Amino acid sequence: MWQLAISPLELVVRTTIIYVLFFGALRLSGKRELGQFTLFDLALVLLAANALQPAITGSDQSVFGGAVILVTIFVLNRIVAEARVRVPFVRRLLEFTPATIGRDGRWITSQFARQGIDLGDAEAALRQHGLERVAQMRLATLEEDGSISIVASDGGGDEGAQHGRQQRRRRYRRGGL
């Protein structure tokens, strides 16, 4: 229970490799998944974590080994968070850029497939921003965090837009990666 079966250094290396691979897989899955976790996304992450656990721990099942892995994950997460703030290249690598998905009352459907969203997501964003029809929209943007922001063409929907910004700020503050 307390005896390590693998050296602490090997546990750190294994954890670091799996962390990078897992984070890369999340990054490749697209911003919509990161910003708007569904039940299926949660199941995917839980199953992936369970499948990756043996790759991290190897034959070690000790409490101390678990502590080494836990500390490694938190340290890696902190390093990535700091690098995202301080190193522009890392920020560009890790963060998505906003994408215009609608303009002047029309959806840009070619962007829907590219960004991994569907018409239902876009129409829900319209309603959240107080608009009833796509014709009332001047600009729709899929933001870095996976949320959809809408600018109304006639000034309508401002309360919904403010609500959406507040939700993004709260999500960002809770944040991390």
Question: Could you describe the 3D structure shown?
Answer:
With 177 residues, the chain is of the alpha+beta class. 62% of the residues lie in helices and 10% in strands. It has 2 domains: 87 residues, no CATH class; 76 residues, bsu07140 like domains (CRO Repressor), CATH 3.30.240.20. The protein contains 8 helices and 4 strands. Strands 2-1-3-4 form a 4-stranded antiparallel β-sheet. Strand 1 and strand 2 form a beta hairpin.
Query: Strand order of the main beta sheet, please?
Result: 2-1-3-4
State the helix count.
8
Give, in order, the helices and strands: HHHHHEEHHEEH
Strand content: 5-15%
**Main β sheet profile:** 4 strands, antiparallel
- Rg over CA atoms, rounded to whole Å, is 20 Å
Strand runs, count: 4
Helix content class: 55-70%
> How many structural domains can be distinguished in the coordinates?
2
Rough outline: elongated
Question: Kindly state the mean pLDDT as a whole number?
Answer: 81
Report, as a whole number of angstroms, the end-to-end distance: 32 Å
Summing up helix and strand content along with how strands pair, one would put the structural category as alpha+beta
| Uncertain ranges | 157-161, 168-177
